[in-house]
Amino acid sequence: MLESDSNIKVLKSKKDDGTFISVGDNKFNFGNCQLVDFNQATNIEPYFSILNTDNFNQDNSYYLQDLEILPQFRGKGYSHKLLDSCEQECKENKKQFILIIVDNDNSVANNLYKDRGFVKCDEKGNKSLHYFKVS
Q1: Which residues of 39-66 are buried (b: 16+ CB within 10 A; e: fewer)?
Q2: Closest C-alpha to 81, from 25, 14, 15
Q3: Which secondary-structure segment (H or E) carries 40?
Q4: At 113, phi and psi to the nearest 5?
Q5: Is residue 135 a contact partner of residue 88, using CB atoms and an 8 Å limit?
Q6: Which residue would you say has higher pLDDT here, 39 or 105?
Q7: pLDDT in tens, 80-123
Q8: Are strands 127-133 and 119-124 parallel, antiparallel or unpaired?
């Protein structure tokens, strides 16, 4: 899927507001995302009714914020590299779930998350909440 896997690097940096993950080579950053603790996620308030349950809580869930790949690097598998790294970060920190909010009309993102095993669990307006159970 990736053209020259040996040159591709996934870098993680921890910050107060979460873990920033980027993918690229020695010349370019192709894309990035940020995993934040559930209690630091800023735009999930409309979903609290489903999130404040035994299934999803601040002790067992990360919120995936702003997964982005630059247009010229899309379709080459870099989003999968970022999601692999997110899953690994969850395992290292004993988190069971990754949560993400996706625009319903973003078919590329919705297909990506569905293919990766994310499940839609709630919908508010034009946005849907999806979760992934880390195994």
Answers
A1: eebeebeebeeebeeeebeeebbbbbbe
A2: 25
A3: none
A4: -65, -40
A5: no
A6: 105
A7: 999 999 999 999 999 999 999 999 999 999 999 999 999 988 88
A8: antiparallel
Q: Which residues of 81-97 are buried (b: 16+ CB within 10 A; e: fewer)?
A: bbbebbbebbeeeebbb
Q: Compute the distance between CA of residue 107 and CA of residue 103 in angstroms, rounded to an integer.
A: 8
d(CA 99, CA 22): 19
Measured in Å, how far apart are the chain's first and last C-alpha atoms?
23
CB 15 within 8 A of CB 31: no
Residue 71 structure tokens: 């247009």
Report if pTM > 0.85.
Answer: yes
Tell me which amino acid residue 17 is.
D
Domain ranges of the chain: 5-133
Would you put residue 5 in left (φ > 0), alpha (ψ -120 to 50) or beta?
Answer: alpha
Q: Does domain 5-133 have CATH number 3.30.390.50?
A: no
Q: Which DSSP state fits 122?
A: E
Gap between the Cα atoms of 104 and 116, Å rounded: 17
